[in-house]
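Below is how a single chain appears once it has passed through the pipeline. First comes the sequence as given, then the structure the pipeline wrote out for it. We keep one example in the README because the format questions we get most often are answered faster by looking than by reading.
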Amino acid sequence: MKNANRKLCLHPGPLKSLEQRRKLKKSQFAVFIFQVSICAALFLLGTPSKGQKPQPTPPPLPPDQDVDVIRTETNLTNLLFTATDKNNRYITDLQQVDIRILEDGAPQSIFTFQRETDRPLAIAFVIDVSISEERTLPDEKAAARTFIEKVIRSDRDQAAVIPFEGYAHIEQGLTRDMIAIYRALDGVEVAFPTYTGSAPALGATMSGPGTVGPPNEGTTAIWESIIVACRNVLARSYTQRRRAIILLTDGNDTSSRVTRSTAIDQSIQADTVIYAIGIGDRSRDGIDKKHLDDITEKTGGRAFYPKKSADLTKAFQEIEQELRSQYLIAYSSTNKSTDGKFRSMKIEVTNPALAKEKLSLRYRPGYFAKKN
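Resulting structure:
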């Protein structure tokens, strides 16, 4: 019985007529011809024609190169913001129905509203190394290193180190290599009597006949250095990274050949928020809080003014918390013109209960439209 069952499984039952056998053979032959045709077609497609070189497999991307998987041609406008209460505590449970967004006064339809806690970071440490930072620079470096150790995730985040005096010096471009970042940070020294690093001097503009002359030794070009950080470093990073500058300086710009408003505009164009840590030798020119407050508020950031080492550490901790407590709004502007003009943005709290709390919302005040 076992053998009989095995035969029944392997062969169909006997054909009732010769005509059925012929039909079976024809169908089997047709299947065979079809299979041969497919094989031949695949063979021809896989064989390079005369004069055509086979395309090699592209090499893998280096670890620091980003792939822009979301095209920048999208019509969506992204805006990150943070919300705090009157005690400066972060509000992390807002809903889309609690707010609305206006562009040039016109309400916009929100496409996306979500908490942003895990977006990859691109952070540039822009560090004043003029003589006014001589006493505080060691503490600044130690606090920055602690921040990097706690915040920068080597599998996704990037950091850059850019010391500056009269010129900016990109000692380390954006990288996920923690050793390289620490090495560059450790090598930052006060530029007295001259700059001691190895990176070339970079400015935001060229000096020549009929223009402002180059900066002198010992001067400080804060606004130019911000522009260099945005243009040469952050603007080249992966589009979907959260870009930020952590600016360590006393705020006393003595030699920039561009205005502060130009630096603000460049930061907005690069979608970069600026956090300033106002620190320096108070026995010299003190801290220019007015200018640091202005450039941070107009880019969606904050300024901190530590008086002692513990305050400096706390400032970095608050920056860390803010970067992890943001919301993302995405909307498609009702203004479809591509004129390159600035468009103001405003977020309003529409929830009556939350409006009574008088929440503080921080975000960049606008953006520049694309220009054809």
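Confidence is low (pLDDT under 50) at residues 1-22, 42-73.

See the next section for the split statistics.
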